[in-house]
Specification:
This protein has two helices and twelve strands. It has a five-stranded antiparallel beta sheet with strand order 1-12-3-8-7, with no helix packed on it. Strands 2-9-4-5-6 form a five-stranded antiparallel beta sheet, with no helix packed on it. The chain is an alpha+beta fold. The chain is elongated, with a radius of gyration of 33 Å. Helices cover 26% and strands 38% of the residues. It has two domains: 58 residues; 160 residues, Jelly Rolls. Strand 4 and strand 5 form a beta hairpin. The longest helix is centred in the C-terminal third of the chain and has 37 residues. The protein starts with a helix and ends with a helix.
């Protein structure tokens, strides 16, 4: 009977291990799909499903490198511009706002004939709302919490530029691209779950039977000893 109890406990532990192995090993598959793209536009919209990650990519227009730049500030790039980005859930009118700091390449002072593009120095989340934005994320966007149409609107600060002709004019719109990132979690050892559950059940039954048999044997011994006395 002790052997039955011991075997039951071993089988029970084996079943628990198989069940644990099912959940402990998982794989993530990431799929990126371009949803919409517009050339020379300050706004773009597209439909996203709940759970997808909405991300925005933009290509600065060459004339963004022209003057004007923001006034210098401490702990900020000497020459910088801001791109303010509002992402709005059209069904609730709630928005998430990002501020992208743009700067010339290191060591370059903006001057004619300008032959460079501004690059991203930093991305900040100014207002949380329609998207779930991870604190460690360096992307413009976040996880969609509600299926629906999302509007992205951009605004450059300062809004005007002045080129070699010395005539101020509004900055040209960028190229905007919206991507949907889907993350799928799979369990490569999913077949272990039913095997683990059935093994736990067999082990539990065997252990219970062994323990019950030991109790019966102990009672018989007590009765026999009492009769002998």
């Amino acid at each position: 009977m002790k052997k039955t109890l011991a075997a039951g406990l071993v089988i029970l532990l084996a079943g628990l291990f198989l069940t644990y192995a099912f959940g402990a090993t998982q794989q993530q598959r990431t799929e990126t799909q371009m949803i919409a793209s517009l050339d020379k536009s300050w706004a773009i919209s597209a439909y996203f499903e709940k759970g997808e990650n909405l991300t925005l990519r933009f290509s600065p227009h060459p004339d963004w490198s022209y003057l004007f730049y923001l006034e210098p500030e401490e702990d900020q790039p000497l020459f910088r511009k801001y791109l303010l980005i509002n992402i709005t859930d059209n069904s609730t009118s709630t928005l998430t706002q990002f501020r992208v700091t743009l700067m010339p390449p290191l060591g370059i002072t903006p001057a004619a004939p300008y032959g460079f593009l501004l690059s991203i120095a930093s991305i900040e989340t100014i207002q949380h709302g329609t998207l779930v934005v991870e604190e460690t994320s360096d992307a413009i966007g976040g996880r969609v919490d509600r299926s629906g149409e999302y509007m992205v609107e951009c605004k450059l600060e300062p809004p005007d530029v002045i080129g070699e002709d010395r005539i101020p004019k509004p900055a040209s719109p960028p190229t905007l691209t919206l991507n949907a990132i889907r993350i799928e979690v799979t369990y490569p050892y999913s077949y272990l779950l039913p095997l683990g559950i059935s093994t736990v059940a067999v082990g539990a039954v065997a252990a219970a039977w062994g323990a019950k048999s030991l109790k019966r044997k102990a009672r018989r011994k007590i009765v026999q000893d009492a009769r002998k006395a």
